[in-house]
Amino acid sequence: MTHDIATILLAAGLVTMPCVVAQMAAERGVDASRAVQTVTLESAWDAAAVGDNGLAVGLWQWHGSESVNTWAWACELTGRPEWGDDANRADAIRSTIVALDMIALGYGWLWTGWGVAR
């Protein structure tokens, strides 16, 4: 599922964000149930969530330029450097695409929730 399709389906109320995460995870060979559980643990599905004393943002709790900057690094690593601006960390779809691509590449350890979810 692409960014544009997911955005349209969400806006139309045809899917929920947990369904989008599960579908995108399955497309990448990532355990869909574990991905959904990870977002629940990281942000409770609040795209505006802020954690780690203000340093982590969004569904997947990405760190930006004021911290370790995992967001820009992950955007580069997954071939989406144009998304590396800190403001995109709160974009539910973009952050999910990057997170799931990172997990598929073996970086699930970046999320505490991934280690806890089963």
Structure description:
With 118 residues, the protein is mainly α. A hairpin with a 4-residue loop joins strand 2 and strand 3 (62-63). Helix 2 crosses helix 3 (32-43) and helix 2 runs parallel beside helix 5. It contains six helices and three strands, in the order αααβββααα. It has helices at residues 3-11, 17-27, 32-43, 70-77, 92-104, 112-116, and strands at 50-51, 56-57, 62-63. Strands 1-2-3 form a three-stranded antiparallel sheet, with no helix packed on it. The chain is 49% helix and 5% strand. 35% of the residues are buried.
Characteristic key phrases:
mainly alpha, single chain, 118 residues, globular
List the helices and strands and how they pair.
Layout: H1 3-11, H2 17-27, H3 32-43, E1 50-51, E2 56-57, E3 62-63, H4 70-77, H5 92-104, H6 112-116
Antiparallel strand pairs: 1-2, 2-3
Order of strands, main sheet, comes to: 1-2-3
Helix count, DSSP H or I runs of 4 or more residues? 6
Distance between the termini: 24 Å
Number of E strands: 3
Radius of gyration: 13 Å
- The H-and-E topology, N to C, reads as HHHEEEHHH
Structural class: mainly alpha
Biggest β-sheet, characterized? 3 strands, antiparallel
| Rough outline | globular
Mean pLDDT: 94
What is the share of helical residues? 40-55%
Please report which band the strand proportion falls in: under 5%, 5-15%, 15-25%, 25-35%, 35-45% or over 45%. 5-15%
Low-confidence parts lasting 5 or more residues at pLDDT below 50? none
